[in-house]
Specification:
The chain has four domains: about 5-110 and about 250-310, FAD/NAD(P)-binding domain (3-Layer(bba) Sandwich); about 130-245, FAD/NAD(P)-binding domain, CATH 3.50.50; about 340-415, Enolase-like, domain 1, CATH 3.30.390; about 415-475, Arc Repressor Mutant, subunit A (Orthogonal Bundle), CATH 1.10.10.1100. It is globular and about 65 Å long. With about 475 residues, it is an alpha/beta fold. The protein contains 15 helices and 27 strands. A hairpin with a 2-residue loop joins β24 (about 360-365) and β25 (about 370-375). It binds flavin-adenine dinucleotide. Flavin-adenine dinucleotide binds near residues 36, 49, 253 and 327.
Length: about 475
């Protein structure tokens, strides 16, 4: 059988995951795979960019070093931007004038940061003024780190996940950091007003100043930024200004290829665009009117697309994702699923507040089933709640019993370490005792650490604690922990 040529446009987290799923289905026997990445790095864990601000190297967050591609016969074109696909001639055109033939193509072009039109933000050539930064790539993060000076000051625009992560990383470097958030609540997509108060208190305890209910209208400084002007007219002095106020799907190459785009590249349940042989996954894809900005839906999309492309399961369909987020943001545990506020009079709201411990839990119950939950400060019950939410199982009549149900108690006794693959402490310790004494061995045996990778440090610690072999075994098992 002749092998088809598969072109993957973009080499971010979606492309990396799609490659894993394809390799798992022995796709390299069916396709000659070529990956085009605007960035020069092998696929890396964007979620861990805060570590780059903190001083880590790109290698330390890289999920696929260049050898990974070569070892599997995948051709990786680093630093090569695809400008458009000619879907009729089946040729990918790159910015440097090259043409690469393909039979099947996948857009995995991700998102770009939104740069708001603030007074004085850009110089004559349209570039952000010195001292202003976006936060999306390794290079952005390295620039932020190079500019960060202890005892300097930074304003971060945006109090969502990215803004709080950037703020924490800068605060840890010794800067005076203020987060400015237009909404009244930090992370207002994931948490309600009261949860936001708990989150804010924890963020402030970490040393970060927070201004909510106000935005930025401009910046001060001739050649470089010296301050940020707020909607209130107040000026916050700042040596650095980090923009973390939203993302937009990258659809330029798809548009230039004549592939239909709304907010994102429009795909159906097979992740197919209306152009034959052209697919899209990840943050650039719009499915059923939704674009996603976190990895769990992207992992689900990659599984389906790999099934479709390889024929492993031609009936596989992506039906959308019920959003469940569990994060540690600026050092604070936050979990959120479904709605964060009641939407009808019949919705029941259960709130459990532990002021002293900084813990907040909220359930929204509709027709006896979990319609949403917000947890701040402690999230051990999140996986069990997510199962109720996902399966739409009836909740116990006394709703508070949810928090002491066998599922939740089991989760508290044996907490999840790898949230991406739901691998628990007990499973990992069992595998270590059975002889897995390096991270790669443990990942192969349990799949832990092969998702976003942010649990690898915790897994390494477990190996050190529970391995019968020396501590060195854990450290030499891999050159890096995410
Ligand atoms: C700081 C930060 C923290 C985050 N934290 C979390 C978290 O805790 N949990 C969570 O679930 N998610 C988190 N996310 C979101 C997560 O990183 C994204 O959902 C994920 O990276 C999206 O994967 P993607 O492949 O679609 O896009 P990306 O990872 O952005 O990859 C797209 C790649 O395509 C390249 N590209 C674009 N156009 C072209 C072209 N025409 N030709 C060639 N290459 C091209 C881009 O340069 C980029 O390298 C975070 C994101 C950031 C920035």
């Amino acid at each position: 059988m002749t092998r088809k040529r598969l072109a993957i446009v973009g080499n971010g987290m979606a492309a990396g995951r799609l490659l894993d799923e394809l390799v798992r289905r022995t796709a390299t026997a069916l396709f000659d795979i070529a990956v085009f990445g605007e960035e020069v790095h092998g696929s890396y864990n964007r979620i861990l960019l805060g570590r780059i601000i903190g001083g880590a190297t790109a290698d330390e967050i890289t999920l696929k070093p260049r050898a990974w591609y070569a070892d599997r016969g995948v051709v990786f074109h680093p630093g090569k931007l695809v400008t458009r696909l000619d879907a009729t001639a089946r040729v990918a055109h790159t910015r440097d004038g090259e043409q690469h033939p393909f039979d099947v193509a996948v857009f995995a072009t991700g998102s770009k940061p939104i740069v708001p039109p603030l007074d004085g933000l850009t110089t004559g050539d349209g570039k952000p003024k010195a001292g202003a930064f976006v936060y999306r790539t390794v290079e952005d993060s390295e620039q932020i780190r190079r500019a960060a000076r202890p005892a300097g000051s930074a304003v971060v625009l945006g109090g969502g996940l990215l803004g709080l992560e950037a703020a924490k990383a800068l605060c840890d470097l010794g800067l005076h950091v203020t987060v400015v958030q237009r909404a009244d609540t930090l992370m207002n997509v994931q948490v309600d007003a009261l949860g936001g108060r708990f989150l804010r208190a924890a963020v402030e305890r970490a040393g970060i100043f927070v201004r909510t209910g106000t935005g930025a209208v401009g910046v001060r400084g001739e050649d470089r930024i010296t301050g940020v002007v707020l909607t209130t007219g107040e000026i916050l002095p700042a040596d650095m200004f980090v923009l973390a106020c939203g993302i937009r799907p990258r659809v330029d190459a798809a548009e230039a290829s004549g592939v239909p785009v709304r907010t994102g590249i429009v795909v159906n349940d097979l992740l197919a665009t209306s152009v034959p042989g052209v697919f899209a996954v990840g943050e650039c894809a719009e499915h059923d009117g939704k674009v996603y900005g976190v990895v769990p839906p992207i992992w689900a999309q990659c599984e389906v697309l790999a099934d479709i492309l390889t024929g492993a399961n031609p009936q596989a369909r992506y039906r959308g994702s019920k959003l469940y987020t569990r994060l540690k943001v600026a050092g604070v545990e936050v979990a959120s699923m479904g709605v964060v506020e009641p939407t009808t009079d019949a919705d029941e709201v259960i709130q459990v507040i532990e002021d002293r411990r900084g813990i907040y839990r909220k359930l929204i119950v509709r027709d006896g089933k979990l319609a949403g939950a917000v947890l701040v400060g402690e999230t051990d019950s999140a996986p069990a709640l997510a199962r109720w939410f996902d399966r739409a199982d009836p909740l116990p009549p006394n709703r508070l019993d949810v928090f002491c149900s066998p599922d939740v108690l089991a989760a508290a006794a044996d907490p999840e370490i790898c949230n991406c693959h739901h691998v628990t402490h007990g499973t990992l310790v069992g595998a270590i005792r059975d002889g897995c004494t390096t991270l790669p061995q443990l990942s192969a045996a349990t799949t832990a650490g092969t998702g976003c990778g942010s649990c690898r440090g915790a897994i390494a610690k477990l190996i050190l604690q529970h391995s019968p072999r020396t501590a060195d075994a854990a450290v030499t098992g891999t050159g890096r922990y995410g």
